[in-house]
Amino acid sequence: MNGSIYPLFIGYRYSFSRKRNRFTALVSVISMFGMALGVASLIVVLSVMNGFAAELRDRILSLVPHGYVNFLDDDAARHWAEPMQRVGGMPGVVAVAPFLREQVLLGAGSSLQGARLFGISPADEARVSQVANTLVAGRLAAIETEPFGVVLGTSLARMVGVGVGDTVVVTLPHLTVTPLGAFPRSKRLIVVGLFQVGAQQDAEQAYVSLDTAQRLLSRDGAVSGLQVRTDDLFAAPGIMREVGERLGPGVNAIDWSQTQGSLFRAVRMEKITVALLLLSVVAVAAFNIVSTLVMSVAEKRGDIAVLRTLGADARGIMTIFIIHGLSLALLGVATGGVIGVVLSLNIAELTRWVEALTGAVLFDPDVYFISALPAVLEWSDVLTVVLASLALGTIATLYPAWRASRIAPAEVLRYA
After folding, report:
1. CA-to-CA distance for 93 and 228, rounded, in angstroms?
2. How far is CA 33 from CA 1, 24, 346, in A?
3. pLDDT in tens, 213-265
């Protein structure tokens, strides 16, 4: 019987025969169900986390340009027009805009919050970011038409306790020297707009016109650097390295993956951690196959003895039970994979259906900044989950299959 395909045929028959012991069949079904549940859960959760990461990236990058060119000395900061023209003409660069940035304190009444104050030109800013499209009150252009106007993030405005039309006091990290001593420089600004992206920027950023920022910071004609938008978000790191090399040692060129890198690394690490935790569910289900095969080996001892007397070797017997276990694992993984893919592709519609059925709002956009679960199905994740699950299923079959191959046919037939 060596070299024949009998292990494949017999292993398949053991897996799906209707004449199996009912308890063994029940354990087999539970094992397959556990594998399917674990695989489907993994695919859905990874897709949802991909969706959240994409949503977070899109929200943050609606405010954050693809790259920054920071001027390291005052001479470069004052003569920024020529570097701006050079960067704008480089391959891969779509738009460039100047900016002025400073850490400040914003206060109203007894409330005081730290913030990053950006001085921008609304016309230039529209080419490198989507700030104007994120406003929920007022207009971004008002920071130029309204003397000392400021646009705040909604969370920052709520913490300070102001709204559109209110006055907020900005305290700058510069001292004003008077005969009475040195005092921090401060100025009253009028809130002319509120923006909201549903990310940390809502609680820490404020925008004024470039002219207002230069007057507040006594930076006549100078800027902190240039904001850069590239034609490809994921090509920005390479393009910004080239920008830094082209402009020389007087500047520091960085891209969005550096300014926001810690956040996205945290999201990636969270995805890996959750995947490993959910993979333990698959592992438990996979090792239920051990119980199924152990019972199958005990049930099929007579069959094993007959096969050995007909010439089947130990390797063939072991292959039979490996195929038996893999058939169960493969069916569970395939079922879970199909369910997981279907759910991932339709989870937003499923969320809305549940909300319509129950009348409950699962994701209130005022609380979560989303109205439905975002999901992005990546086939590489599906392939990884399937291969990892099949690997666990294969490992689970090895010990019972090895025990089956060690059964001595003479001992079984003696007491048959």
Report:
1. 7
2. 35, 14, 22
3. 998 888 888 899 999 999 888 888 899 999 988 888 888 888 887 877 666 77
Q: Which amino acid would we find at residue 248?
A: G
Selection from 273, 268, 300, 138 nearest residue 206 by Cα: 138
Q: What is the pTM of this model?
A: 0.65
CB 409 within 8 A of CB 308: yes
Residue 89 in tokens: 């003409």
Tokens 């897996």: give the residue: 15
DSSP SS3 for 80: coil
**DSSP code of 109?**
T
Arithmetic mean of pLDDT over the chain: 82
375 close to 347: Cβ distance less than 8 angstroms:
yes
Dist CA 140 CA 207 (whole Å): 9
| 15 burial level (CB within 10 Å; 0-12, 13-18, 19+) | buried
Question: Which residues does 152 contact at the CB level (< 8 Å), separation at least 6?
Answer: 106, 115, 160, 162, 168, 191, 193, 194, 195, 206
